[in-house]
What does this fold into?
Amino acid sequence: MTKDDVKRFLENLTDEQEAAALYSAMAEIEKQPQLAEVYRRMSEVEAGHAEFWRSKIEAETGNIPKVAIGWRTRALIWLTRKFGTGVALQTAVAREKDGSAGYAGQPEKEASLFSVQEDSHKRLLNTVANLNAGGMQGGLLAQMEGKHRSGGGNALRAAVMGANDGLVSNLSLVMGVAGAAMDGKAILITGLAGLLAGAISMALGEWLSVQSSRELYQHQIAIEERELALAPEEEAQELALIYQAKGLDADQAAKLANQIVSDPSIALDTLAREELGIDPEELGGSAWEAAITSFLLFAIGAIIPVSPFIFTSGFEAVIYSLVLSALGLFILGAAITILTGRSAFASGFRQALFGMVAAAITYGIGHLIGVSISG
It folds into this structure.
């Protein structure tokens, strides 16, 4: 046994321990009891994998390794507790995919079993993400788990993209004006105007998008309610077909569908979730909450490049603006790696580089325009 083998064992242990911690957190906050139980079982499986690699390391080195949960996983767990399990689903799918592929090339016989289990977890998580986990029935989950089909962070992505849009767009605007003329007051007014215009535009667009979605969902649910009252047998057949497509045999699907349709209130809720992919309790979320959040995120990003011009002016303010903007872009790029799992430095550097290129281009264009106008 070589040092490389021990290093590999330690990497496996770290990955499995972090996966177990993440699924445990998802199980704690999941509102659907059946789905929470699936996450709990997945956590136990990953913890079992971790214990195997811990025992291998102990057998080789005589020491019991103590591995801490990494910052990226801790941050993802925090986001999951804050915004719900949907934040972690796609990241968990990617981790399971990487875990399955990684085990496929390892010599231990247990690694083959672990690879199959990781692939199984990936399939379930994909199914949950694609089929609106909130509406999946307990019976269906039990079937999926029994067959070992157990497998955005959208909130963080939206936050990073909103702040990034504000930062890059206002940085480009400020640099364009700075290239044309070094009048600090004019640059400050332009930057603040760009901040307000962009933030209001983003907020209005988000409000219209969410409100339109809510109205569409309400209309679709009303149609479903009428169809359920007029033709419950047809709705039961449609629901049975959905469950068959998800893996139940025809008799089980028909029995489950008829049982659901027999209670109108449960039937409407289930049909909305399973047939329409709508959570009646959410209906796409609050339009005002989405608008305010979008406004604030854009404004937070947009204030960074203009803030130096509040305190200073001229070339000094331009340098401060570029430095602060580059730092802000680096942090935003690094933050998204909580979900992507990539190098925080590489992602942050790339984000900052692209922002600086955009700033240089607009500064150059502004300078050419300023020279031509003054000439």
Observations:
- The longest helix spans residues 184-230.
- The chain has three domains: 3-134, 154-209+287-374, 213-274.
- DSSP finds 16 helices and no strands in the chain.
